[in-house]
Amino acid sequence: MHIYCEDSLLYAREYFAGWGELHFFSGRNLDPQSLTNADILLVRSTTKVDERLLSHCPNLKYVGTATAGTNHMDLAALEARGIAYGSAAGCNAIAVAEYVISSLFVLAQQQGWQLKDKQVGIVGAGHVGSQLDAKLKAIGVNTLLCDPPLQAQGDKRPMVDIDAIMACDIISLHVPLVEDGAHPTRLLFDKHRLNALTDQQVLINACRGEVLDNQALLSLYQQGRQFTTVLDVWENEPDILTELLPYVALTSAHIAGHTLEGKARGTWMLYQQVAELFDLPCELSLNSVLPASEFAPVSLASLEQQHVANMVLSVYDIRRDDQQFRTLVNKPGGFEYIRRHYAIRREFAALQVSAGNSAVKKAICGLGFSPKPDTL
Ligand SMILES: NC(=O)c1ccc[n+]([C@@H]2O[C@H](COP(=O)([O-])OP(=O)(O)OC[C@H]3O[C@@H](n4cnc5c(N)ncnc54)[C@H](O)[C@@H]3O)[C@@H](O)[C@H]2O)c1
Ligand SMILES: O=C(O)[C@H](O)[C@H](O)COP(=O)(O)O
Q1: C-alpha–C-alpha distance, residues 287 and 351, integer Å
Q2: How far apart are CA 119 and CA 170, in angstroms?
Q3: In sequence order, what are the residues at sequence separation of 6 or more whose Cβ sits closer than 8 angstroms to the Cβ of residue 346?
Q4: Could you tell me which CDD domains the record lists for this protein (predicted)?
Q5: pLDDT of residue 49
Q6: Residue 343: how many CB atoms within 10 A of its CB?
Q7: Where are the alpha helices (DSSP H) in 17-161?
Q8: I need a labelling partner for 167 at 20 to 30 A (CA). Which of 102, 269, 294, 336 fits?
């Protein structure tokens, strides 16, 4: 069996080498003609799986993307050709939620507010939105969810419409890029919605760049508007609107999902799908490939914001990514360079915490940290 794999899939060798001949390729420079004998194609978001690529792969039986988003794959073309496909839905939900949490603690520190006094509106209550909701609730933050498609499918959680979200102190976007249908998300935050934001509000986009009109955002900032934005994703990556940079509070190169665990989970999910499709033994767990954590355990006496913030930022401090992004993104190929050389971080679960009391323990576990075994 010939397995072709984008070189950015973490632990692909560990999971797939036993099942056939592994061939690695670079997503951006892929020549589809090199895939002629591929039985299995494993990608991340940089490989565009379209009709042109598929027309060169007569043997292809399965395409998997180790990412949550699938907008780089032409699913209709795959279906028309009878090729099985899969994604890694939810693999990096924890990672993105932790990216948002890190950004909120940094902003709280910079702007002098308490997170528990804020209401956070979450647009898209799928894997990422639900993780974020759970983590915020664990530390006493009030949240609202908006997800009309899920609501229409009978999701029983309380939901609000987008107008109620627009009144939240903080708005965090976690929708897929949807072009049409009843609930499109392309430019969901267009010039009208952006214009409706007050200078006290915070808007976070860690889903897809095309959900937020970057040019309209720039125009509003140039007119003197002062609301706060956090952008992990940009319109038209990697050729982004760099004029926006000075106005954005925190930013990065589409790395919100890039934790070691998130990337490993993505590859592991495809491993499970291939095992099922080809009736192969699925013997490796997720933990079998992950290295031990290098963090020394810490203690947390109270849920005072500064203490929780210190713990969060000791695992992941978004300011490092922000600084690197601003330094490198204007260099030729900068955006992609940052992504390829990203120092993949760990998730909160890699840090063991001894809690001062049961309320602290409940909160830190809800946030995703691991309780130190002797405090269980
Ligand atoms: N920055 C990153 O590194 C990163 C990492 C993971 C995911 N993502 C992006 O974030 C998106 C969400 O990820 P996920 O794993 O939660 O996906 P998901 O499919 O589990 O959840 C997306 C949710 O958005 C909802 N939705 C769709 N259209 C909507 C609309 N118009 N208004 C409100 N809600 C709407 C869907 O019903 C669904 O529940 C992905 O599709 C991907 O594009 C980005
Ligand atoms: O949709 C996703 O899962 C994320 O956006 C993902 O992190 C992006 O995938 P990458 O470009 O890292 O392959």
Answers
A1: 15
A2: 6
A3: 259, 260, 261, 293, 295, 315, 316
A4: ErythrP_dh (cd12158)
A5: 97
A6: 9
A7: 51-54, 75-80, 93-111, 127-138, 148-152
A8: 102
Mean pLDDT of 119-148: 98
CA of 7 to the centre of ligand 1 (A): 25
How far is residue 292's CA from residue 216's CA, in Å, rounded to a whole number? Answer: 45
Q: At what angle do helices 93-111 and 305-315 cross, to 10 degrees?
A: 130
Cα separation, 370 vs 226, whole angstroms = 38
* CB-based pocket (< 6 A), ligand 2: 8, 44-46, 67-69, 92, 257
CA distance 235 to 192: 17
- Counting ligand 1 atoms within 8 A of each CB, the residue from 72, 98, 128, 208 with the most, and so the one to mutate, is 128
Mean pLDDT of 317-344: 95
Q: What is the pTM of this model?
A: 0.96
CB-CB neighbours of 199 under 10 Å: 9
pLDDT digits (tens, 9 = 90+) for 47-87: 999 999 999 999 999 999 999 999 999 999 999 999 999 99
**If you measure from the C-alpha of residue 346 to the centroid of ligand 2, how many angstroms do you get, rounded to a whole number?**
16
